[in-house]
Design brief:
By secondary structure, the protein is mainly alpha-helical. It has three helices and two strands; from the N terminus they run E-E-H-H-H. Strand 1 and strand 2 form a beta hairpin. The chain is globular, with a radius of gyration of 13 Å.
């Protein structure tokens, strides 16, 4: 996904600053937990009609980018 910034925001006043889908209080963490619990894209879209496929893909892309930038420092 090229421009996840048009789908995701981080606002300290929404969900304590967790990354969320713009215009909702649905966090990236929520979406990842639903997917990891076995929910399909279609189930998520049905249960949360404000979410579209591009929102779910943006959440996955955000998580992948964050994971790719994670660095462990050996002390």
């Amino acid at each position: 996904m090229d421009d996840i910034n048009k789908y995701i925001q981080i606002d300290g006043l929404i969900r304590f600053g967790k990354p969320c889908i713009i215009g909702t209080r649905i966090s990236i963490d929520d979406i990842l937990k639903w997917l990891s619990s076995g929910m399909s894209y279609e189930e998520i879209e049905r249960d949360f009609p404000q979410l579209k496929r591009e929102h779910i893909l943006a959440a996955l892309s955000f998580a992948a980018n964050r994971e790719a930038s994670l660095r462990l420092i050996h002390i």
